[in-house]
Amino acid sequence: MLAEISDVPVKIKIISSQQPSDVLLTGNHQLATWEKWLEVSRITSYFLGSLLFLLGSIYFYPKYSVMWSGKAILYGSWGFVIGCLYFFAGANLDFIQTIRYNHGTQLRQVLRAFNALLNHMAASIFILGALYFLPSWYPKSPELGCWAFIIGCILFCVAAVVEVLFICFTHENPRASGFRFSNIFCLGAVAAFETFLGALCFIIGSWYYLPKYINLVDEGTYYMNKAITFYVLGSMCFIANSCALMPGVYRTINSAQKRCDGKSSHQ
Predict the structure, then answer these.
(1) How far apart are CA 199 and CA 182, in angstroms?
(2) Number of H helices and number of E strands within the chain?
(3) Residues 106-148: tens digit of each pLDDT
(4) Per-residue pLDDT tens for 199-249?
(5) What is the value of pTM for the model shown?
(6) Domain map (residue ranges) of the chain
(7) Which of 34, 68, 84, 160 could form a disulfide with 127 if both were Cys (CB 3.0 to 4.6 A apart)?
(8) Is residue 219 within a helix (H) or strand (E), and if so which, with residue range?
(9) What gap in Å lies between CA 88 and CA 81, rounded to an integer?
C-alpha cells in the first residue's frame, strides 16, 4: 500500500560543504592554555627522547658497559626503551596537530598527513627495536633490535624528505600552489635534515651492531665501538632536530598570545 503524498511544501535545510569543521582549525586560531602545553610537550618529548638515546648509547660502549657491576648496559638499554616511548608520544602529538591544522592544497595536505604517518610508524617500530636491546630480550633474537632500528630509520629518512617537499609546497597563502625551492632556507628544513642525518647514522650503527660483526673474535670490539659511535652521532642529530623546532613553537605560542592581547585591547 502506497503512502499518500502530501501537497504541503517541506522546507529542506541544506548544509553547506563549506561549513567550518569543529576539528580542523584555522591558521589564526587562538591557542588555549592546554594547546600551548601540547605544543611544548611535543618538542619536549622529542628532546628528552633524543637525550635518552644519547645517554643510552654511551653506556653501550664496551669500556662503560662494565660500570656498576656490568649493569650499565642494562641502564643504557632502558634509556633506549624510554627514549623510544618519548619519541612515540611526540609522534602521536604530531599526528593530532596534523589532523587539526592540515590546510592548503590537496597535495600539501597529503604530504603533511603522509609525513605524520611515517613518523608514527617509525616511532612504533623503534619501540620494538629498543625492547630487543634489553639484556633479557636480546638473546631471544640478537638481530631483531638492529633490523627494527634500520627499518624505523628508513621510514624517518623518507619522512624527512617528505617534510622538505611539504615545506617547498607551503606558502604564505595557504591556497597557493606550486613548488618553491627557496622555502628550504628555514629552520624547519634544518630540522628535517637533522632527522635524515640522525636516522642515517642509526642505520649505519645498527648495521655494524649486527651479530655477524660484533661477535667476530678479533674485530668484534672494533665494530661495536664503531656502531655505538654512530648511535651517539645520530642521537646528537636528533637533539639538534629538537632544538631547531623550538623557535617555531615559541613563535606559534607568542603570536597566538599577541593576537589575543590585540583583540582584548580593542574590546
Answers:
(1) 25
(2) 9, 0
(3) 887 888 889 999 999 999 999 999 999 999 999 999 999 999 9
(4) 999 999 999 999 999 999 889 999 999 999 999 999 999 999 999 999 988
(5) 0.81
(6) 34-257
(7) 84
(8) none
(9) 10
